[in-house]
Amino acid sequence: MGTWDPDDKTCTLNMDLPDTCIDITDDDVTLKCDGHTIDGDGTGEGVIVDNQDGVSIQDFVLEDFQHGIFIEDSQDCEILNNTVGGSLSDHTDTAIFIDNTDGCTIRDNTVTFSVISIFLAGSDDNVINGNRLADTTDHCLLLTASDSNDIMENDIDRCGKTILTCSNSIGPESTAAGNGIHLINGSDNNIIIKNDSDFNADDGYEVDGTGNKVRKNDADFKSFRGFYIGDTSTQCKKYTGTGNVLEFSNVDCD
């Protein structure tokens, strides 16, 4: 199944694992999958971290779980260079779910064919950087009651647009909804910088909450709105060169 290095608490998998859930029950564990696939049955979690600190999850391919990676009540974890999602006919629910967890880094992951790509609930001081998020049936990146997170240089496409017909094809007549980046329920003092959010069913960016900073982002106007800023205390700055698409935004970017 894999090798274990007790000195630095690193487990490296050396084979694919069907229908397997990995539950990390100690602090400061590094789990490396080396690109192997863990394939679920549409239920449960691929990797669980509950009340553990300093855990690092790297190089996984997680397919067809309800939640690909689920971390709760933890601190200072890493989610690095993983591929998480489902398929066109069988979506993962939430690919990466972070609940009541602070100080984590979520970087260089690829998430496709999920209901929500990355969901932070009650989680502060996290870094979400360099991820590729696409083809959801709802929002790609959703924060609720989460403060002081840095959201930087993510590539986000087709959020809320992967709605299936009975023949498991994308239905253009279907009513789709979903924002690229959506902050709700008092998500305050977050920084959203240099992201690219295009071709979404609703807004490229919908930001509610106070003291957020939205800077140097792009949004293709084929989204319903490029930007919707719900509070005038949020700072919105243009990107040098092309600038932001601001159709139907309720604040101006200077």
Question: How does this structure look, described?
Answer:
The strands form 2 sheets. This protein has a 17-stranded parallel beta sheet that branches. With 254 residues, the protein is an all-beta fold. The relative contact order is 0.09. It has strands at 2-5, 10-13, 17-18, 22-24, 30-32, 37-39, 45-50, 56-58, 61-63, 67-72, 78-80, 83-85, 92-99, 105-107, 110-121, 127-129, 132-136, 141-144, 150-152, 155-157, 181-184, 191-193, 196-198, 203-207, 213-215, 218-219, 225-229, 235-237. It is built from no helices and 28 strands. The chain has a single domain, classed as Pectate Lyase C-like (3 Solenoid), CATH 2.160.20. Strand 1 (2-5) and strand 2 form a beta hairpin. The radius of gyration is 18 Å and the shape is globular. The protein starts with a strand and ends in a 17-residue tail after the last strand.
Summarize the structure.
The protein has no helices and 28 strands. The chain has 254 residues and is mostly beta strands.
CATH architecture: 3 Solenoid
Shape: globular
The main β sheet shows up as: 17 strands, parallel
Question: What is the CATH T-level topology?
Answer: Pectate Lyase C-like
Q: What Rg is obtained from the alpha carbons, in whole angstroms?
A: 18 Å
**DSSP E strands, number:** 28
* Uncertain regions spanning at least 5 consecutive residues: 163-175, 239-245
Helix content: under 10%
- CATH class reads Mainly Beta
Note the beta-strand portion: 35-45%
Whole-number count of domains: 1
Gap from first CA to last CA:
55 Å
Number of helices: 0
Give me the strand/helix succession: EEEEEEEEEEEEEEEEEEEEEEEEEEEE
- Structural class, judged by helices and strands? mainly beta
Mean pLDDT: 85
The name of the CATH superfamily reads Single-stranded right-handed beta-helix, Pectin lyase-like
